[in-house]
TrEMBL record:
Organism of derivation: Brumimicrobium oceani
Protein's name in the database: DUF2306 domain-containing protein
Keyword Iron-sulfur: no
Superkingdom of origin organism: Bacteria
Annotated keywords: Membrane, Transmembrane, Transmembrane helix
Keyword Protein biosynthesis: no
Membrane spanning residue stretches: 12-30, 42-60, 66-82, 102-120, 126-143, 155-178, 184-202
């Protein structure tokens, strides 16, 4: 049986997760840098933050313990915050203390995702291990970028797009898994594979200089 507070958290998580899923889709296909893109992106950001925080709470509640939900919450929160913060990197000399701190937290959390199942259950958890490896590499990549402010300023748009897309992939993964669109653990990886192609596409667009003017 669910308690009232448990039910409230689940409703909040599901509601804002749905809002994030829809607003993120709109922002993804809206003309970049224009009103619809900016506003839907802002809705996506706040909806993702609320949904991710509620996911973290639900995942540690008694009788609701879920390492998978916790992993999705961590990834969603990290990627959406980094994606939003990247908008500030187009200006000179941004304060990177917060960004470096959350990257280190992400590395620690990701490593724990990999090793804790081994210590607690004497077996490797494939899903958590994949999430953990991606988290470590993403955070290390960001930390390396923070060491070169000038390069960071030039690459802010790629960081914004890549991380916001990463957050959307997390939301899409949760949606697919909860609704069991794919059998077994495939639902945990298919959104990421599809999303990876979108990230590659937009990255190539940025590198070819076709989008920068619309963002500046």
């Amino acid at each position: 049986m669910y308690g009232t507070s448990d039910t409230n958290f689940i409703i909040i998580h599901a509601a804002f997760g749905g809002i994030a899923f829809v607003s993120g889709f709109i922002s993804m296909f809206a003309k970049k840098g224009r009103f619809l893109h900016r506003k839907s992106g802002l809705v996506f950001f706040y909806a993702m933050v609320i949904s991710a925080l509620s996911a973290l709470l639900i995942a540690i509640l008694p009788n609701h313990e879920s390492p998978f939900l916790f992993a999705v919450g961590v990834f969603s929160l990290y990627f959406v915050v980094v994606g939003k913060r990247a908008l500030k990197f187009k200006f000179k000399n941004p304060n990177l203390l917060f960004d470096k701190s959350i990257a280190l937290i992400m590395i620690i959390t990701s490593v724990l995702m990999i090793i804790l199942p081994v210590f607690l259950y004497q077996k490797v958890n494939i899903v958590l291990s994949v999430f953990g490896i991606v988290g470590v590499f993403s955070a290390i990549k960001n930390l390396r970028a923070y060491k070169n402010p000038e390069r960071l300023r030039k690459g802010w748009l790629k960081m914004h797009l890549g991380n916001i897309m990463g957050a959307y992939i997390s939301a899409a993964t949760a949606f697919v898994v909860v609704n069991q669109f794919f059998p077994s653990f495939y639902g945990w990886f298919i959104p990421g594979i599809i999303g990876g192609f979108f990230i590659a596409y937009w990255t190539k667009r940025v590198e070819s200089q076709k989008l920068k003017d619309s963002f500046e």
